[in-house]
Each structure stands twice: as structure tokens, then as C-alpha cells.
């Protein structure tokens, strides 16, 4: 197998890990029990929270080293380096896509899909649509649902969603999103997420 194919394999390897980490550690099995899960819980619970970059780098480097070492044993250093570069590139792309989904509105079909899919996960069903860059593994494991119109709790609304002059969803986004103006949020403060994990993970979407 050529180094190019190993690079492509590395690119394809990241979405599998992305899905596994997000679904398994973030939601289904270790919720609130690991450092990753707690950071992810806080990401759901507190508007615009992302783990600090230094933490992401400190976590990513050992993973890259593990991937490099494992595949060096299997296929030799050159091929393993190519695979690790593809893996690292896709991870960096994921981080960019994920953060930008929270900070910037959609600009095309793919970015529209990313946001509808991801915020459906945040605010409608946090046990579905775990893939951020691709829905492939959600289809494979039966966790994909069509987002429909995404209902966003008002105090969790992304900064790009609403016209600041009116407080309403921008007209060109209204077919994909609507605001939920909850009068009695489950979490009195977003920082109180540890008191109600379900409310935190669901972004208070199920408030009455």
C-alpha cells in the first residue's frame, strides 16, 4: 500500500474515533465519569464553552504518538507517518468545523448540514447525531435522525442565529431554526450543570 493510501486511511480513521469518543465517552457509557466526559458535558451545558486549546493539544499529542507507534509496528515508519499525518489533519479539520459551527452561520450546503445536525444533537436529542464531520457512523450504528426544524433554547442561541435588533431568528435561517423562550429553565445558571446532568446534556430543550 502506498503512502498516499495510508494518508487517506488516516483521514478516514479520525471520523471513526470522533464518533466513538463522542457517543461512547461523551454520552452513552461514561457520562460525567471521565475528564473528557466532564469537559463535553460542560460544552453542552454552558453556551460557547470549549475545552482550552492547551488541553486539546496535551490530549492529542499522546494519541498521535500512539497511532504512529502502533502503525509503525504494522506497516513501517514511513507508512505510519503518512497515516498519522492524515489522522492529525482530519482531527484539526474537525476542531475547526466544530468551533466554527458554534461561532459562524452556514455559508453553503455542507456547513448548513453540519449546523442543523450538530444543534439537533445539542438541543433535541443528545443521544443521536454524534458525528460532527460526517453522518456515516450514525447511519452505521443507528443513531442518525433527520433534524427537522431545530428548536434552540433562547439563552443557548448561537450568536449568529438571531438579528440583534429584533431578537428573532434571521429570516434566511427561520426554515431551519426556531427559538424556545423558556420561562422556567431547569438550570438557574448555566454553571449549575452538575446539579442536573439530563438538563445539561439536552441543553434544556425539554423545559416545560
Question: What can you see in these coordinates?
Answer:
There is one protein chain. With 208 residues, this protein is mainly α. The chain contains 7 helices and 2 strands. The chain has one domain (3-201). It has helices at 3-28, 35-45, 53-75, 77-103, 109-123, 136-141, 197-201, and strands at residues 150-153, 177-180. The longest helix is centred in the middle third of the chain and has 27 residues, at 77-103.
Strand content is under 5%
Count the DSSP helices.
Answer: 7
Domains, number: 1
Low-pLDDT ranges: 204-208
Q: Mean of residue pLDDT?
A: 85
Between the first and last Cα atoms, what is the distance in angstroms?
57 Å
- Category from helices, strands and their pairing: mainly alpha
The ordered string of helix (H) and strand (E) elements is HHHHHHEEH
Q: How many E strands? A: 2
Q: From the alpha carbons, calculate the radius of gyration and give it in angstroms.
A: 18 Å
Helix content: 40-55%
Widest sheet: strand ordering: 1-2
Q: How would you sum up the major sheet? A: 2 strands, parallel
- What general outline do the C-alpha atoms trace? elongated
Amino acid at each position: 500500500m502506498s503512502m498516499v493510501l495510508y494518508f487517506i486511511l488516516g483521514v478516514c480513521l479520525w471520523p471513526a474515533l470522533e464518533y466513538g469518543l463522542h457517543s461512547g465517552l461523551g454520552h452513552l457509557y461514561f457520562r460525567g465519569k471521565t475528564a473528557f466526559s466532564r469537559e463535553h458535558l460542560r460544552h453542552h451545558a454552558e453556551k460557547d464553552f470549549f475545552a482550552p486549546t492547551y488541553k486539546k493539544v496535551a490530549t492529542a499529542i499522546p494519541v498521535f504518538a500512539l497511532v504512529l507507534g502502533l502503525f509503525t509496528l504494522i506497516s513501517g515508519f514511513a507508512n505510519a507517518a503518512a497515516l498519522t499525518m492524515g489522522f492529525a489533519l482530519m482531527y484539526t479539520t474537525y476542531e475547526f468545523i466544530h468551533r466554527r459551527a458554534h461561532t459562524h452561520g452556514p455559508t453553503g450546503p455542507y456547513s448548513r448540514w453540519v449546523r442543523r445536525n450538530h444543534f439537533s444533537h445539542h438541543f433535541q436529542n443528545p443521544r443521536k447525531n454524534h458525528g460532527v464531520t460526517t453522518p456515516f457512523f450514525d447511519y452505521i450504528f443507528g443513531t442518525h435522525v433527520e433534524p427537522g426544524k431545530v428548536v434552540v433554547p433562547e439563552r443557548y442561541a448561537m450568536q449568529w442565529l438571531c438579528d440583534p435588533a429584533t431578537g428573532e431568528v434571521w429570516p434566511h435561517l427561520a426554515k431551519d431554526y426556531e427559538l424556545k423562550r423558556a420561562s422556567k429553565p431547569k438550570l438557574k445558571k448555566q454553571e449549575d450543570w452538575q446539579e442536573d446532568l439530563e438538563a445539561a446534556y439536552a441543553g434544556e430543550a425539554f423545559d416545560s
